[in-house]
Specification:
The complex is a heterodimer of chains A (about 350) and B (about 220). Helix content of chain A is about 75%, strand content about 0%. By secondary structure, chain A is mainly alpha-helical. The two termini of chain A are about 20 Å apart. The chains are: A mainly alpha (about 350), B mainly alpha (about 220). At the A-B interface, helix 6, helix 7 and helix 9 of A face helix 1 of B.
Chain lengths: ~350, ~220
Amino acid sequence: MDLLFLFFISSGLFLGWSLGASDASNIFGTAIATRMIRFNTAALIASIFLIIGAVHAGAGGAETLGQLGSINTLPGAFMSALAAAIAICWSVKVSMPVSTSQAVVGAIIGWNFYAGKPTDYSVLTKIVGTWIFCPILAGIASIILYRIIQYCCKKSNTHLIRRDQYTRIGLVIAGAFGAYALGANNIANVMGVFVPSSPLKELLLPFGIVLNKAQVLFLLGAIAISIGIFTYSQRVIKTIGNGIMKMSPLMAFVVVISQALVLFLFSSQALFNFLSSHNLPTIPLVPVSSTQAVVGAVIGIGIAKGGNDINWNILGKIVLSWIIAPLLSALICYISLFFLQNVFNLVVYK
Amino acid sequence: MFHINVSLLSKTKALEANIDQFHDKLIDISLSFSKAIKTYLKEGRSHDFEKYSKQVKNIEHEADTLRRDIEKRLYSYNLLPDLRADVLKLVENLDKVINKFEEVTYMFFAQKPDIPDEYRGYFKELGKLSAGCAESMCKASRAYFRDLTTMRDYAQKVYFLEHESDTCSRNLTEEIFASPRSLAEKMQLRQFIDGIADIADEAEDFIDQLLIFAIKRDI
């Protein structure tokens, strides 16, 4: 059973690896491209904080994905994760920023259709709403932060070299926060579909730390993401560093902080509880795309700088890929489940 | 991690200090140059002139050492990775102005030109304008590292002084060439006028570049 389980979650781990390879660039890409932080330092910090975030605060997003469609067999979960990973590979091939969340949501809906299970449209609306809301929120956050930092720089008259050093420290802290938020928010994309069918048991760690079965799964997924960061993200970072609009280290800091804030808002159980206990409108705990947040934050800075630097054609293509990616993922999942069930005689739903 | 940050901050402070000292050298050399020119115009190649001339040479030598140190620190500690090339270019161009001061002072020392009385006032004015231009350039360059608004104020002052120095050098050249002196004498005097006016021209070129770098430095 264990070996079979490992085989089935391999697609999730592959998805995690590809998330690490592509999304780590959202956290430390600009910092590495501007040579403010060395790759190995960045990869180590990102891995540590991503694992902490995934294990400590990954449950919220997974729960929402579970509400959208509870994939109740391992072969079904295997194929959903694989379909999402293929959709991401396609996005990478056409050089569009990848959204893991959208690919996973598309795959779950594909499974729902195949299994004849109803899709909870209120949850779907909530998730799709965040796809629009997340980049807008990141954009607003980056405009506000950019203005604040610009004002502080003008007022403080800090020496350029000292400012550079503070930026470097800020980038490390922002990157660590970004990695924590990415782990907390996006682990559900990687391992969320396996939670209902996971046979794993609780794990006792040193110092009396107990991980429940979902957290063990998240730990495995987070390790896969970390491997993705170490083994492949350097390539993506190089492409991003040379390809996207030229940014100063301080702008990079604003982008990372804005992105991390948005990811944190969409994954913080504590904030959710606080808002609901005070009868305030809550922010849903949904896995959002760090890529979408980064794109939103970069556009926010572009607007703050007068809007002349924004390439609206590329932006249009990116938005189009955000529509195509989940549809493609759903389609691949639907077709593959058919093969899995009828060619390999595996039970893909109960 | 704490140790790394503390050690990086101390390196940052050392580099900051080096850059400040380099700017101090520029102010020093400009003041010594002014004194040397004034003394030469008053006393010729006197003992005092030789003292100021030696001072200028020493300052230029110290500035060279500081420039090398700044370059080494910027590269070996990976400081200012995105603006490093700009800062190095600025330091090199400041050094060019320092070298120009030394070159002109040495020309007076070696050639011992005979400056006719009627042109001494012009030479004094030209020296003052060029030194003032270099001082404002130095203040603009210092402000580039801290306060861009102040930098623009000093940049404007450099443009004004350079224009004044151009006018002064043209008037002086025209007067010299209208006089009944020998061509060799005229050519030598023009060489000195050009040498002094070049200091202001270098300062203007520096400011042109500084304003472009300032756009890149703005966040």
